[in-house]
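Fold it.
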Amino acid sequence: MVDQQKNVPIVLILVLCVLAAFCEGIDLQAAGLAASGIRPEFKPDASQMGSFFSASTLGLLIGALCGGWLSDQVGRKAVLVGSIALFAVFTLLTAISSSMDMLFWMRLATGLGLGGALPNLIALVSESSPERRRSANVALVYSGTPFGGAVISLVSMLNAPEHWRLLFVIGGVVPLLVAPLMAWKLPESVAFQQSHARLEHAGGGAGKAGNPLEIFAAGRAGRTLLLWVSFFLALLTLYLLLNWLPTLLQGNGLSRPQADFAQIGFNFGGALAALWIGRLMEGPRRRASVTTLFIALPLLLAALAYAPAQVALVVAIVFLLGGAIVSAQAFLYASAPGLYPTLIRGMGVGAAVAVGRTGSVVGPKLGGILKNSGYDSSHLLLALVPVAVVAGLCAIILVQRQSRD
């Protein structure tokens, strides 16, 4: 069994995991894009719409914690494939929902699958890659997520709002095709198998692997907290922008089609930058690259706040901003596996993903609070600058500590 992975090219593993991340990107943005068609069909009030938006995130929080813990017990592959199949089925069921209540429950169940898949993608890729390529390969796989978001955004832009169900059909069919392919071709992590074999040989069972306090033991507490704070604030910023960016750009003078085009640029900028940052995270340029990235993020937010309503200029800034914030996410996802030994890696990465997703809940709500408090588009963007600065400081301290290890 352990020899299985040796016969599977790392390129095939990466391709399969990129496809899985691509599917996640589609499903993560489908709900927001479908909202313009759901509103006239079901006529939900603000509370129902808010519950619909938050359902998948709530499920994702639970799924990331449970999926990460479970993968440390039974393996990365089984939990990953099962999670992808789960969110595929419930995304298809979302497409045939007949009420807001059904939409809520389908998105909640979809979130469980989305949450279970992500930490296992990261752990499996990290454990399957040679040491010199681990961070770069995790960043490469993560780039599939914004590509999926960009593609489904393009599909939405080319279709009328009343065809919103098509978004969930695509979001369900694609992972339903990918899951059996991964079950057939994807190997289990050799590192996971070897660690559990050693534990069983020593008579330790799986008890230690299931203790959540292990992620804070052996000097890992400081690094874990730095990772969590940076994850929380970076995802708060990202999801506030994903939900509010078109509205903010229209508030600064762009038309709706222009703002939608800029949103697509935000996703493509993020995907391309995630590919680029992966190369820089290996070797001597790692610390300088991360420092430059987290300095650029607040500067780009300020630039967008003060930019005149010139489409080319705004799209260029949004493209770079998408690149900066998604690269920040790619760095954090790539750094997380290295903080934890194999026996608790799924749990450690899952906890970090869950904390980050808490930020993704807070971000859109914070945007609404600031708008209701009278913040215009420019001042709301400027309010994110200190958030990005603190996230950057935590990430820079984290990479410096890792560089000393």
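The mean pLDDT is 85.
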